[in-house]
Amino acid sequence: MSLEQASPQELARIADLVSDALTAAAVPWSYAGKPGERESAQLTVDDADDGRGVYITWELSEREHTALMALIEAGEFGDPAVLASGRKRQEGLDRVAAVLRQAGIETVDPEDDFNPYTLEVVSAPDA
After folding, report:
1. What confidence score (pLDDT) does residue 52 get?
2. Is position 102 within any domain?
3. Which of 86, 95, 99, 122 is the most exposed place for a label (fewest CB within 10 A)?
4. Whether the Cβ atoms of residue 15 and residue 23 lie closer than 8 Å to each other
């Protein structure tokens, strides 16, 4: 199951369902590329032919992200803060998946090593 054949209008409709469900559950979110002052779900609508779909990631706050990048650039991969950041992101995604499931929106982990901590929407209620 996927949204590979969905039209841009259908992808936008599904993104609206996702954002409505997150808002109703008081889960902070924004469209991807807009880092926030606090951790939040980031929503991406990809209408390119090779990867078409609606995706959700869980991003750390801008402050946490900056600190994490400094540790990674220093090679401190085993630092407890690095490990904790992965747990925080997974917990956020688990929360998002549960909220969306309650709204009738099914997600899967696309198992993309280049984009960990990502959910892919595979189905949503009809209009």
Report:
1. 86
2. yes
3. 86
4. no
Q: How many domains, the chain?
A: 1
Q: Reduce the DSSP state of residue 112 to 3 states and report it.
A: coil
The answer to whether the beta carbons of residues 38 and 27 sit under 8 Å apart is no
User: What are the pLDDT digits (tens) for 13-67?
Assistant: 999 999 999 999 999 999 887 667 789 999 999 988 777 899 999 988 888 888 9
Report the alpha-carbon distance of residue 111 to residue 115 in Å, rounded: 8
Does residue 3 sit within a domain? Answer: no
Task: List pLDDT tens digits, range 85-98.
Answer: 989 999 999 999 99
Domain that holds residue 93: 8-123
